[in-house]
Write a structure and sequence with these properties.
Elements (H helix, E strand, L loop, with lengths): L1 H34 L1 H7 L2 H42 L8 H57 L4 E6 L7 E5 L10 H4 L2 H4 L2 H17 L3 E6 L5 E9 L2 E8 L2 H29 L4 E4 L5 E4 L1 H6 L5 H7 L6 H8 L7 E9 L2 E12 L2 E8 L3 H20 L5 E4 L5 E4 L1 H7 L3 H5 L4 H10 L9 H8 L9 E6 L5 E8 L5 E7 L2 H21 L4 E5 L5 E4 L1 H7 L12 H8 L6 H12 L8 E6 L5 E9 L3 E8 L1 H49 L9 H32 L6 E5 H18 L3 E5 L6 E5 H18 L5 E9 L2 E8 L28 H11 L3 E6 L5 E7 L5 H6 L1
Parallel strand pairs: 22-24
Antiparallel strand pairs: 1-2, 1-5, 3-4, 4-5, 6-7, 6-10, 8-9, 9-10, 11-12, 11-15, 13-14, 14-15, 16-17, 16-20, 18-19, 19-20, 21-23, 24-25, 25-27, 26-27
Length: about 850
């Protein structure tokens, strides 16, 4: 009995020990999937299935454990009962009833044990079945995890994952070898080595913002091999990851085209900036000859405030004849000529170069008025230089464009001991070299012709040619040969020994470097790898307001940070500089940015790595440019508000003037009524003047109000079916008195069935009346005004022609401007502006053609509109 009890405990303990082992396997699998957020993110829904699988496994193990404990307890009770019966057998012989009870109890225990064993076997079989199902599920989950890992390890993409700011990144997948991306993980994040500098800097900033501020990004970067990659940065489950995808075919071409487009836009912007910086007027015209772009020099030349003002006012630099010549440009033969024009009251000559590209033309003008003065000044300067050079101890010889000797000083003649007669014959440079070689005065050369050709290459070189000549007499000459701007070359011979030559070169180099560094307008400071200052210039100390003692060499950057903290103490300033300079990172990236100091200065800084682990910081004062930009922004906002205020003012004043003018006109008409009062002839004349002037003023006020309504964008056209024949008859009747006063005849030419058009009847009538009134003002007495109307498809086209004095060509482009009035009969200058505005509201166009002495013709095209009620009915 005791042995059976111990065996039961051993089996129960073994089952209990086996159950935690099984449970621990699934717990480890659960922790692995829970911790790997990237894998769960890719599996997309498998995490719930894995949790269910682990919970089922745990429940089965607990049930199996309870079943083992129940069986063990039953066996223990069955074994203990016979033992008790034996120990009490002697005392129970006298009680037969106890024997009966003992037998009954034993029978019950045996029955319970039998039933428990049967139930236990069934439960064990069920647990085995569940275990087999769980093992199959676990195998299926492992296979799916392997497939997902294979998907992540695609060779066309690579994923970099950071658990935190301090942890090392984890790399998944790889990129194709043709992209140039490193295979090793430690080299992949060195973007500057395999990405182009612009793409590398942009990507590093984006990753820094992703890890610090959780800012997602999508970028297209370009490798040094010209391949295009798509990068995507995201944050998930507290981890930051960046995915690199190699683009193929159309997507790669699209990304490359976007990069190329950005380059083109930057190139055009840089070209405009460059042209605005030059002092030569530059312009560009459209196909119709109107200006489309001018530079700042052009605006200054035509006395305009800005290039935009010059374009708006249509100011021309060249005369009409010159512009007409430029219109006839051929794409294959650029225009080149010297053209004269009047600027600031004086005649000025320009060398003009014009080219034609597609339908547009471009030109540049160079002021050459002072060419002769410059030439004379150059001659005087050359003469002065010759007198100066003649007194120098350094031998100098000057040859012209044909390589003939034009000047030599006494030191040159004494150095080479040449015959003065030979020099006065102006020999060419080759003859001089041959004479010196023949006299044994030049160093011996293995190939004389090749050496001489190399010496004479100065006439075709852009830079100064320098050489050392070791003469047979022991002298060492340093020879400088420099091409002259006018053609030819200048030879300078400096007599030096090798030691003096080396010392001079070294001292000159050190001095030039020091002077250049100290006179730079940018602040520059260089740090060594230990974070100590190597050198700094005065501009740096002036920008940060520190003394020379505080920025002396060997000063640590921490001390410099404390000195500059008064001007700027933010984390992105010297604290960041100190980390970049003193860090032990293998990759030392460059950095740029802008700092706004407490002193009001705005500095553009750059951190540039140098050889030997040194780092250079540069600071450029951009305060003026930033302030100008802000001022221009404020000025633009002020101009916008002023324009809105102007529109409000014009509308308010126009409405306020209309009411009293209507009253004046009404009372004047009332005074002219005979039934009211009898007026004398002079009084009637005065009343007529009052009525006429008031009507004219009311017309002007109405015109101003219409223009203000158009500018405000609140004018809406009342479209309706307009009978063109009736409209023309109505206008002819209304204009009869006005034409009769000016002794002008109206000739109307129109087909019998002109038909109708969908338009605003009142605005169309105003257009015709304004054009006829304007023509009547300029037409001579006894002449005729011609009104021609016809249809082109659904469009109405009409012209108004008069035989007046015409309009000059230099002002014809301004006739549609407001308050532009020309001639002695000109009014307020609003008629043609209103015509242009109303025609534009009808989506039509208006043009004018005029020549001085030949009259003026205005042509309008009004397309048919669409009725609103018909659209609503549909």
């Amino acid at each position: 009995m005791i042995l059976e009890y111990r065996r039961s405990r051993i089996r129960r303990q073994r089952d209990v020990d086996e159950c935690p082992m099984k449970t621990d396997v699934f717990h480890r699998l659960h922790r692995m999937l829970k911790d790997n957020d990237v894998l769960v993110w890719r599996v997309a829904g498998r995490k719930t299935a894995v949790h269910s699988f682990c919970n089922r496994m745990t429940s089965s193990c607990l049930a199996f454990q309870r079943l083992r404990r129940l069986a063990a307890s039953c066996v223990f009770v069955g074994a203990a009962t016979p033992a008790l019966a034996q120990t009490e057998g002697l005392t129970e012989t006298l009680f037969s009833s106890n024997e009966v009870m003992t037998g009954a109890l034993m029978l019950g225990v045996i029955s319970a044990v039998t039933l428990s064993a049967v139930w236990f076997m069934r439960q064990r079989n069920q647990a085995d079945l569940e275990n087999r199902e769980l093992r199959a599920s676990l195998s299926d989950a492992n296979q799916r995890i392997s497939r997902f890992q294979a998907l992540i390890s695609d060779h066309n993409r690579r994923i970099v994952v950071w658990d935190s700011l301090d942890d090392k990144p984890e790399f998944l997948g790889r990129l194709p070898g043709e992209t140039g991306a490193p295979i090793e993980d430690r080299d992949f994040l060195a973007f500057g080595r395999w990405l182009k500098s612009a793409s590398a800097g942009q990507l590093e900033k984006a990753i820094d913002r992703l890890r610090t501020n959780a800012e997602s990004f999508d970028l297209t970067v370009e490798t040094v091999r010209g391949e295009v990659l798509e990068t995507e940065g995201r944050v998930s489950g507290g981890r930051a990851f960046v995915r690199f995808v190699a683009l193929n075919n159309l997507r790669a071409e699209l990304a490359a085209l976007k990069i190329e487009r950005d380059k083109f836009h930057a190139a055009i912007s840089g070209l405009h900036t460059l042209l605005n910086a030059v002092d030569f007027p530059v312009w560009q015209r459209q196909a119709d000859g109107s200006l489309s772009w001018v530079n700042t020099a052009y605006a200054r030349a035509v006395d305009a405030q800005t290039p935009e003002a010059a374009l708006a006012e249509g100011r021309e630099l060249l005369e009409t004849s010159a512009r007409d010549r430029l219109k006839t440009l051929d794409a294959n033969s650029p225009f080149r000529d010297t053209i004269s024009t009047v600027l600031a009251g004086s005649r000025t000559f320009f060398d003009v170069v014009g080219v034609k590209v597609a339908d547009a033309t471009a030109g540049i003008a160079v002021n050459v008025s002072a060419k002769e003065a410059v030439r004379e000044e150059l001659a005087r300067t050359l003469k002065s230089h010759a007198e100066t050079l003649d007194h120098l101890a350094t031998p100098v010889a000057i040859f012209d464009g044909e390589q003939r000797l034009q000047f030599y000083n006494q030191a040159f003649q004494q150095l080479w001991s040449l015959d003065i007669g030979f020099l006065e014959r102006k020999p060419n440079n080759a003859e001089v070299l041959d004479r010196l070689r023949a006299g044994g005065k030049l160093p011996e050369q293995l190939n004389w012709k090749q050496w001489k050709d190399g010496a004479l290459v100065v006439y075709r070189a852009l830079d100064t040619q320098t050489d050392l000549w070791h003469l047979p007499n022991g002298q060492t000459l340093r020879v400088f040969a420099t091409a002259r701007p006018q053609g030819g070359a200048t030879w300078v011979f400096e007599n030096l020994t090798e030691k003096v030559d080396l010392e001079t070169r070294y001292n000159t180099l050190v001095q030039v470097q020091s002077e250049t560094f100290d006179h730079l307008s940018e602040g520059v400071v260089v740090f060594g790898p230990d974070g100590r200052i190597r050198l700094s210039n005065p501009a740096f100390r002036a920008l940060w307001g520190i003394t020379e003692e505080q920025a002396k060499p060997n000063t640590h950057i921490r001390a410099l940070e404390a000195a500059c903290q008064v001007s700027y103490d933010q984390p992105d300033g010297w604290k960041r500089f100190g980390h970049m300079i003193t860090s032990f990172d293998d990759e030392r990236p460059s950095s740029q940015g802008v700092l706004e100091l407490r002193t009001g200065l705005i500095l553009d800084f750059a951190v540039i790595p140098l050889p030997n682990a040194q780092t250079m910081l540069t600071f450029v004062n951009v305060t003026d440019s930033v302030r100008v930009e802000r001022a221009l922004t404020d000025k633009n906002e002020a101009l916008r508000k002023a324009d809105a205020l102007k529109n409000d003012f014009v509308q308010h004043v126009s409405y306020e003037l209309r009411s009293p003018l209507t009253n004046i006109i009404g009372f004047a008409d009332l005074l002219k009524t005979p039934s009211i009062s009898a007026l004398s002839e002079r009084q009637a004349e005065y009343v007529d003047h009052i009525s006429t002037s008031s009507s004219l003023l009311l017309t002007i006020v109405n015109d101003i109000l219409d223009l203000a309504t158009v500018d405000a964008g609140i004018m809406e056209l009342d479209f309706s079916d307009v009978d063109l024949g009736g409209l023309i008859d109505d206008i002819a009747t209304q204009m009869a008195d006005r034409l009769h006063e000016n002794s002008v005849i109206l000739e109307i030419t129109a087909p019998d069935r002109l038909g109708s058009i969908v338009a605003d009847h009142q605005r169309l009538k105003q257009i015709l009346i304004k054009l006829l009134t304007n023509a009547a003002n300029f037409a001579p007495e006894g002449s005729a005004i011609a009104l021609k109307c016809w249809r082109e498809g659904s469009d109405l086209v009409f012209t108004v022609h008069d035989n007046g004095p015409g309009i000059a060509q230099d002002v014809i482009e301004t006739v549609f401007n407001r308050f532009e009035s020309h001639g002695q009969h000109g009014g307020a200058g609003l008629g043609l502006s209103i015509v242009d505005s109303f025609v534009s509201l009808h989506k039509g166009n208006v043009s004018i053609r005029s020549r001085e002495g030949e009259g003026t013709e205005v042509t309008c095209r009004i397309p048919s509109g669409q009725l609103r009620n018909s659209a609503a009915a549909e």
